[in-house]
Specification:
Two copies of one chain form a homodimer. Chain A contains 14 helices and ten strands. With 334 residues, chain A is an alpha/beta fold. Chain A has a six-stranded mixed beta sheet, sandwiched between helices. In chain A, strands 5-4-3-6 form a four-stranded parallel beta sheet, with helices on both faces. In chain A, strand 7 (179-183), helix 9 (188-198) and strand 8 form a beta-alpha-beta unit. In chain A, helix 1 packs across helix 8, helix 8 (153-172) packs across helix 9 and helix 12 (265-279) packs across helix 13 (289-296). The longest helix of chain A has 20 residues, at 153-172. The A-B interface holds A 23, 26, 28-31, 47-48, 50, 52, 109, 276-277, 279-283, 313, 317-318, 320-321, 324-325 and B 23, 26, 28-31, 47-48, 50, 52, 109, 276-277, 279-283, 313, 317-318, 320-321, 324-325.
Chain lengths: 334, 334
């Protein structure tokens, strides 16, 4: 018999654990973005979260949920860089060691910030090495508990607090959201946000936004079973290249009003340039895909109330400069 | 007999006018910034304000306060670029024409965004032309009401809503602020914020932060009379080069617990790189000086509760790239 799926009570418990540690990120508005899209857009700025992405929520909730004796042996994570920082910072706060397996080509900022939280970072070659094998070797040598980036009920419950907060703020504004759009890699954020939102807004749809070429979630939802991407590199969205949907989140997403759309590299870059120029927020490519789906019309939002999650802001300066240069002539005004 | 100075009731009236038009910007926290400074820091992110700076508040309040018949003839402003956008956007919302006199070397983003709000932009040479003379010529030719960037009671009342919001949020957090630090050019923001804060926290000090070489406010406060800067160009803080304190704000600041400190170009750039890397906020040089004063210790904050205003985020990408390159090796951790 399988474990029960994480529900709204798990998310509420996660919120209680996170209080005082995570940032209660603001739900922002931009009259210019509303004018450009023809929608009422509510922007959940998770780039302002501790460690620069929503991943701190799930990482902290997972570490906090461990039995103290087990936690004391340390934690291990495999991550492209945001879950890395979340788990490393959570481990630091609990005073336990962390070892993080990261691709050698992760953004410099992500590597540096993970080390800053006190983690031992073990790098691997994304194209040539199997990260699961690298992680297994680390576990065998060092021990510790593996905190999975998305296929873990306590991680999903932590990410769900994003939805809980959006729902509370939207309700306080007297609005009813038609859809919430979130960046999607393994699907943990989307699954948690869906549960968190629907406790208040039963009919709110969830749109998962993937990078083009990494549309495993869209294909999996269509076929009703978990399918994998053929590639593990090649998107500018370094945070969104999970091989396939996690089974826990997939069960939640499949059972609800969830769909998936994809955006390409140029669209992600243009969206992060928009975030820089118009929203004054620093957003990384993977963190900008929901905004990209909105700006490009791949997510049909005209006349609707739409919440979008800007999920992370850990971008290196040179990539931002490239995005600003390439996006200089993009005209969004409809 | 001179007009009474703007007070807390004027600020509350401004807040009522601004409701639904201005962004109620968040008061953010960063555990990393707290660790670096040894202070409890509360970050008022006015870079997230409509038009990208706090200036929309004062501009809108001033335009809204005009007699409708007078307003219909249009408004004029002289501005380095943020007041420009604030007044232009306010005029657009009221459906009246605006003419803005701006230095030709203003950041490209500021010029473009002012025009985008429908303003007619008249440029002048900052080093060779007298901007007051240019403005007088524009007024003579086109008519309209001049909205002064800082020496105007309704503008100061509008900026004061920043202080009102900080005070409300700090109170809700159960904290008592020792000092609020704000960027300073003509002194309107500091004066308004001081009045807005002290209505709730009577003993809260105000620290005005100026660019080095443009310390007219510090010298004026010291001598108890309005003194001017000798230069009108030469700081990277393009928004903070007013010639001398405005008399209305100066009267308010002189009568209260207000002091002024200065930061140099390199410190402003390092602070905006910090805002990019750690806070994930886009801040322009002039908008980052209060953060710079905190990070450098020019504002002594250890053990204190300090609110800082990040007043604007209208920076061009190439300058940000320079700040990130120069600030790459700055170590802030104490």
């Amino acid at each position: 018999m399988s474990k029960p799926l994480p529900g709204i009570d798990d998310i509420r418990n996660a919120a209680a654990r996170l209080a005082g540690h995570a940032v209660r990120t603001p739900l922002l508005t931009s009259s210019y973005l509303d004018a450009v899209t023809g929608a009422r857009v509510l922007i959940k700025a998770e780039c302002l979260q501790r460690t620069g992405s929503f991943k701190f929520r799930g990482g902290y909730n997972a570490v906090a949920s461990l039995d103290p004796e087990i936690r004391a042996r340390g934690v291990v994570a495999v991550s492209s860089g945001n879950h890395a920082q979340g788990v490393a910072e959570a481990a630091r706060l609990f005073g336990v060691p962390s070892t993080i397996v990261m691709p050698a080509d992760a953004p410099a900022a992500k590597l540096a910030r993970t080390r800053r939280s006190g983690a031992t970072v073990v790098t691997y070659d994304r194209a040539r090495e199997d990260r699961e094998a690298v992680a297994a070797k680390v576990m065998a040598e060092r021990g510790g508990v593996l905190i999975h980036p998305y296929n873990d009920a306590s991680v999903i419950a932590g990410q769900g607090t994003v939805g809980l907060e959006i729902a509370a703020d939207v309700e306080a504004m007297g609005l009813v959201p038609d859809v919430v759009a979130v960046p999607c890699s393994g699907g943990g954020l989307g699954a948690g946000v869906g549960v968190g939102m629907r406790a208040t807004f039963r009919d709110c749809a969830v749109a998962l936004v993937e990078p083009e070429g990494f549309d495993d979630y869209a294909r999996s939802l269509r076929e009703g079973r978990i399918l994998a991407n053929s590639s593990q590199s090649g998107s500018i969205c370094d945070a969104l290249m999970a091989v396939s949907p996690g089974s826990i989140g997939f069960a939640l997403n499949l059972a609800s009003n969830t769909r998936a759309v994809a955006v390409n590299d140029a669209e992600a870059l243009a969206a992060l340039a928009f975030a820089f120029n118009e929203l004054k927020l620093v957003v990384e490519p993977g963190g900008a895909v929901a905004l990209a789906a909105l700006l490009t019309g791949r997510l049909d939002a005209r006349g609707k109330t739409v919440a979008i999650v800007l999920s992370g802001g850990n971008i290196d300066g040179d990539l931002l400069a490239r995005a600003l240069a390439e996006g200089r002539d993009t005209q969004w005004r409809n």
